[in-house]
Specification:
This protein has about 500 residues and is α+β, with helices and mostly antiparallel strands. About 30% of the residues are buried. The two termini are about 55 Å apart. The protein contains nine helices and 22 strands. Strands 14, 15, 16, 17, 18, 19 and 20 form a seven-stranded antiparallel beta sheet that branches.
Length: about 500
């Protein structure tokens, strides 16, 4: 019995491994160079957050002296020594060392009948902040900062007092400065925790996860698993599957080669497998939109003359409808297939071309129905955050579905129909694909200097990053506006990202 159970386990083990590791259709790698750019923008954001620290009032009594410290305000920060790096398996580490914080606060002192009031400049030196951000996939498949650990300390703090009671303040400075240092250090980590778990997560909310591309299809960019972090890279595996809007829950199995990114020279790499493109074409096919109809004046005149001459006998037998307009219907018969090789990317398409006469007020009369096999070359490129495809006709063949003899009769139509595809059909297709589909990056972050490289079964796009918007600008754009009648939500407002069309 035990032996049988072991054999069953060994039989199921390959299936269980495959099921637990679904290959991604899209993969993104952020390298240490990309993280350095993020650090520059992140440091500016941290400075802004620390400048908004709220420190509680400090008051007390020593003998006959009553003191009150209030309106503490951060005036300046010097964060010269900072570091942001990867930490396996799911973490980012952000360190600030030997920083200084300049403060100003309001002082009040009562000693018997003497009352003194004024402002004091103070400085906190030797500020050390150590934060560890844990990255994870949430239930919706979105990248999130799931947890943060933070430690902050201040080595030294001194305040400069002036005025008639300066000697008294110098006597009390030990109590005041010690209290101020404690209060300030206690506010640093809560400020950074709020900035990470609320504000930065609201920026991550702008990454498209499941969006409509156009009126026919959508794209699923949900993460398949938690991010994989090494000492030099952060890898994100996205589902990268298109779906028809008429069947949004439809799943297309991924049997394509899994993209493998080995490079680390650029700031970011994005890889797309054949599955990514196949699912787009399969979704359009399921939506029933891979068809083009030309009728009447839309049929090129030279082609119309040739078609009427080719099918003259059939048309003559249809008198008096001999002068009826021609109609050409090109219908894809199966989902197109994408093939990615180191030499280039191509798309194979099988279709039917139906040629008919359309007499006014009468049913259409079919003259011929022929099969078409075409191979398109595809130039894939990235512009901004939009992945775009430019298609060009490479090979073309037509044949009859009825007999080989009829296929020979159609040979004279090979060249003019190829010209029709090149001059009329291909511009229509490229017009539909030129807007592209958005890559899963946060708002305000774009690609530059993109280079596309083909591999066996997938392609990669290596690029640098730049911020077109500051983090603060994106955060303020989606920050919930509190109202008098409703309590503000602690959850960040989901942005309405307008996805470009494919």
């Amino acid at each position: 019995m035990a032996a049988g159970s072991r054999r069953l386990l060994l039989f199921l083990l390959p299936w269980l491994v495959t099921a637990s590791h679904s290959p991604p259709g899209c993969k993104i790698r952020i390298t240490s160079k990309g993280l350095d750019l993020v650090k520059q923008e992140g440091l500016r954001f941290v400075e802004q957050e620390l400048q908004n620290i709220t420190v509680s009032d400090l008051h007390g009594k020593e003998g006959q002296f009553h003191y009150n410290i209030s309106q503490v305000k951060v005036m300046d920060l010097q964060l010269a020594l900072s570091d942001l790096h990867f930490q396996p398996q799911q973490h980012l580490v952000f360190n600030i060392n030997n920083a200084s914080i300049s403060l100003r606060f309001r002082r009040q002192l009562l000693y018997w009948f003497f009352y003194d009031i004024g402002s004091v400049n103070a400085s906190a030196d030797g500020v050390h902040i150590h934060t560890v951000l844990q990255l994870a996939k949430d239930e919706a498949g979105r990248l999130k900062i799931s947890n943060i650990t933070c430690n902050a300390s201040i080595a030294r703090m001194h305040a400069g007092f002036s005025g008639t009671l300066r000697k008294v303040y110098e006597f009390l400075s030990t109590f005041i400065v010690t209290g101020m240092r404690f209060l300030l250090s206690q506010q640093i980590c809560p400020s950074l925790e709020h900035a990470s778990l609320v504000l930065l997560n609201s920026v991550l909310d702008t990454v498209p996860v499941r969006n409509y591309v156009d009126e026919h299809i959508g794209i699923d960019y949900s993460l398949l698993r938690d991010p994989a972090v090494s000492t030099d890279t952060l890898d994100l595996d996205f589902k990268g599957m298109f779906f028809p809007r008429v069947r949004e829950n439809q799943e297309l199995e991924n049997h394509a080669v899994e993209p493998v990114i080995k490079e680390t020279e650029r700031m970011v790499y994005v890889a797309f497998s054949e599955y990514f493109f196949d699912s787009a074409m399969h979704s359009y096919f399921q939506a029933g939109v891979l068809a083009i109809e030309l009728q009447g004046e839309k049929v090129p005149k030279d082609l119309e003359v040739l078609l009427r001459a080719t099918f003259f006998g059939t048309i003559f037998m249809l008198s008096p409808t001999v002068d009826a307009p021609l109609r050409l219907v090109l219908q894809v018969s199966a989902p197109p297939r994408c093939i990615i090789k180191p030499s280039g990317t191509s798309v194979s398409v099988s279709a039917f071309l139906n040629i008919s006469l359309v007499p006014p007020g009468h049913p259409a009369v079919q003259l011929s129905s022929m099969a078409m096999e075409t191979k398109l070359s595809a130039r894939v490129y990235l512009q901004g955050k939009a992945l775009r495809v430019q298609l060009d006709l490479r090979r073309f063949r037509i044949y009859s579905k009825q007999s080989a003899l009829e296929s020979l009769a159609l040979f004279s139509l090979q060249a003019p129909l190829k010209t029709l595809l090149q001059l009329t059909i291909m511009p229509i297709i490229n017009e539909r694909t030129k807007k592209g589909v958005q890559i899963p990056l946060p708002e305000g972050m774009d690609f530059t200097k993109e280079v596309v490289t083909n591999h066996a079964g997938f392609l990669t796009v290596g690029a640098d990053l730049h911020f077109s918007k500051e983090l603060r600008e994106v955060i303020e754009k989606y920050r919930p506006v509190p109202t008098a009648t409703a309590r503000p939500s602690s959850e960040p407002t989901a942005p309405s990202v307008e996805a470009p069309q494919l």
